[in-house]
Amino acid sequence: MIEHNFPSLKNDRILKAARGEPVDRIPVWVMRQAGRYLPEFQEVRAQHDFFTVCQTPELACQVTLQPIERFDLDASIIFSDILVIPQAMGLKVEMAPGVGPVLPRPLVDPNDLSRLIQPNVNEALKYVGDAITLTRHKLNGRVPLIGFTGAPWTLMGYMIQGGGSSTMAKARSWLYKYPEDTHKLLQMITDVIVDYLVMQVKAGAQLLQVFESNGNYLDDALFTNYSFKYLKQISERVRKQLKEANIPEVPMIAFPKGATMNSLKILAMDQSYEVIGLDWTVDPIEARKQLGANVTLQGNMDPCAMYSSQDEIIARAQKMVSNFGKTRYIGNLGHGILPDTPISSMEAFIKGMHSA
Ligand code: 1CP
């Protein structure tokens, strides 16, 4: 057990909601809450390259705290990116202004697997752990700190496409052309993720979210074979390693964006994650009916609904709470907040959730 002497936690609503305990009001946080819609974030980014912010604990901590200083949120999420894993595995990743992440030398065929390294995560990604530990101290117990990772299939997508893609056709082709090598690649990524998440908890992360942002490209059979299989393995191995190190488990959130209702059911029935994040295409009442009462649901307002009037945002947030129900629910958007979202929309969203 590592002794950090962190300040004691004053707001544990999100932890309670994740574990199915009653809460006095709905906990809320927003994916990408530290981001470009905040002028104070833009100021930091004007002076520092994206990955410099990620790799400098003082800067990562500063931007993680920005939304916490400004809004009445119930959780913080460490500032980083899912692509730090491909970077640690030896692939170059650049952040192209206005475009997003670019990997100039993506994996083309299975021969390229030899270009990947299995890093010592405690060294290669130490900067994330340091940022988490520093942020836990600076948060001073105001709200819990969420650690995160990309899921194996989502990271594989970026590693093969060389960046974002509207079809993921090259990555999906691998699933049919090279099933064995695909499993080899997914397993390599999974091994890194497990060490990475354990390191984050040891450093002070109080919840973990696994972003399967490319879940929409998989049918139920592909989801089972190439996503769920590894999501389950990650949860089981992380919990086992924490137990062996005598460190208390933390709740885990899976966010399989765009997954079908059947795929969501597979994940919910398995119970390897306390929380399932939903995108905005999933109907709250239907989700609660299909996914059962033993899982906490998170989400799922359309990020574009943040462009409605403040009154409408408040009403939508309140309606979501009545549709999802007040227990086992965490308020969030159905995907990351968009860069030109008005600050007043964020205030209205939180107000709506908290007054429901
Ligand atoms: O110039 C900038 O500042 C770049 C914008 C930006 C930011 C603020 C990127 C580029 N990443 C981030 C931070 C980030 N990324 C966080 C910070 C913590 C918080 O939520 O406040 C998190 C959790 C992520 C995770 C992430 N990165 C995901 C999963 C969530 C999702 O959106 O599905 C993904 C897919 C990425 C890749 C990525 N990084 C950045 C962009 C623009 C993208 C998406 C690219 C694409 O697919 O088109």
UniProtKB/TrEMBL annotation:
The cross-references to SUPFAM superfamilies, in alphabetical order and at most eight, read: UROD/MetE-like
| InterPro entries (UniProt xref) | UROD/MetE-like_sf (IPR038071), Uroporphyrinogen_deCO2ase_HemE (IPR006361), Uroporphyrinogen_deCOase (IPR000257)
Q: Which UniProt keywords apply?
A: Cytoplasm, Decarboxylase, Heme biosynthesis, Lyase, Porphyrin biosynthesis
* Subcellular location(s) of the protein: Cytoplasm, Cytosol
Q: Name one GO molecular function term.
A: uroporphyrinogen decarboxylase activity
Q: Where does the record place the Uroporphyrinogen decarboxylase (URO-D) domain?
A: 27-36
Spell out the reaction equation it catalyses. Answer: uroporphyrinogen III + 4 H(+) = coproporphyrinogen III + 4 CO2
User: Which pathway does the database say it acts in?
Assistant: Porphyrin-containing compound metabolism; protoporphyrin-IX biosynthesis; coproporphyrinogen-III from 5-aminolevulinate: step 4/4
- Listed GO biological process terms: protoporphyrinogen IX biosynthetic process
- Identify the GO cellular component terms for this protein: cytosol
Question: According to the UniProt entry, what is the EC number of this protein?
Answer: 4.1.1.37
Superkingdom as given in the UniProt entry? Eukaryota
* Entry similarity comment: Belongs to the uroporphyrinogen decarboxylase family.
Describe its assembly.
Homodimer.
Q: What is this protein called?
A: Uroporphyrinogen decarboxylase
Lineage, uppermost ranks: Eukaryota, Metazoa, Ecdysozoa, Arthropoda, Hexapoda
